[in-house]
Write a structure and sequence with these properties.
With about 220 residues, this protein is an alpha+beta fold. It contains three helices and ten strands; from the N terminus they run αββαβββββββαβ. It has a domain at about 20-35 and about 40-95 and about 140-200: Double Stranded RNA Binding Domain, CATH 3.30.160.670.
């Protein structure tokens, strides 16, 4: 069985870590007023089950992006011109991966009648040969995440609604959330309803699993 992925992972650690790129698909709708001078805001109160320390830490990430764009927290929540909402979810998708390999040649392939074999020299088709086939089964975890950020006027009028979707092998949501929040406000307020993709590099993490060459296809690129 080939050891190349393991060797590459080890090389990354020796060289100080390989950066991970977070690919996020973003769709933002907006009806943003051109003459909005008062950008004071208050966060919508989350439902009690969502009001956790984790939620508040992500709320702070949103607040940081708003500050960068010229928004200010309202001194008196009752006088806030805007209301900001935030929701997120993470789904762990476990994928079983089967790989057949030839223990004699030491690489992936398949032995059997009428089978195609990829050896170390050149691929060939052998319609008669029977031989051993060994199969490795591994479980790859793909973590699907979605972040939704909304900004409404105090009277309830909807002004901004961004949804960020991401699938990666990074297990810890706190490692990914800064990139998702940054993606939600990229080009704010942007062109309404036009999907786009944002790629942001993050530092390598110890809980990151080796990713396959392509985790998910980009339908928008």
């Amino acid at each position: 069985m080939t050891k190349i992925p393991a060797l590459l992972a080890a090389a990354c650690l020796v060289l100080g870590g390989c950066a991970t790129t977070i690919h996020s698909d973003v769709t933002a709708f907006n009806d943003w007023p051109a003459d909005l001078s008062d950008k004071s805001y208050v966060f919508d109160a989350p439902a009690p089950p969502e009001d956790t320390l984790e939620y508040r830490s992500y709320q702070q990430l949103v607040s940081n992006e708003l500050s960068r764009l010229g928004f200010t927290p309202a001194a008196d929540p009752r006088g806030a011109r805007l209301k900001v909402g935030m929701h997120f979810r993470t789904v762990d998708q476990a994928v079983h991966v089967l790989q057949a390999y030839d223990p004699f040649w030491g690489g992936p392939g398949y032995w059997g009648r009428g089978s195609y074999y990829r050896g170390p020299f050149r691929p060939y088709y052998d319609p008669f040969f029977y031989g051993p086939t060994m199969v490795d089964e591994t479980i790859q975890h793909i973590y699907e995440r979605q972040l939704n950020v909304t900004i409404n006027a105090a009277d309830g009028k909807k002004l901004f609604d961004a949804t960020v979707s991401n699938a990666s092998h990074v297990r810890a949501t706190p490692h990914v959330m800064p990139a998702l929040v940054q993606s939600a406000f990229a080009g704010f307020p942007g062109r309404s309803g036009q999907p786009y993709r944002i790629d942001i590099k993050i530092d390598p993490k110890m809980d990151e699993q080796p990713a396959p060459a392509k985790v998910a296809g980009d339908a928008k690129s």
